[in-house]
Specification:
mainly alpha; two-stranded parallel ribbon
């Protein structure tokens, strides 16, 4: 599966917020989920919205409350991804 440059950069930024001991595991999990989402949507390339969807899907439920704050730090609008203000 092809990834556009912006999607790769966003994934790198997301992973920089992940503790080093689990970063490799999380990297594989988010990449696989992003590619799966793209395939399900009939896309041949992973974009930034797909990366965010994979990140949310890959985040354990107990930690999802932190995602809006992390999104804002990355310059993303959490409301665009289903999080209320």
């Amino acid at each position: 599966m092809d990834w556009n440059e912006a999607a790769e950069e966003l994934l790198d930024q997301i992973l920089m917020t992940t503790p080093l001991p689990v970063r490799e595991q999380i990297t594989a999990k988010v990449r696989q989920r992003a590619e799966s989402i793209a395939e399900e949507d009939g896309k041949v390339r992973v974009g930034t919205n797909t990366v965010v969807a994979a990140w949310v899907d890959s985040t354990p439920e107990a930690l999802r409350s932190e995602l809006p704050r992390q999104m804002e730090r990355l310059g993303l609008d959490p409301s665009e991804y289903g999080f209320e203000d």
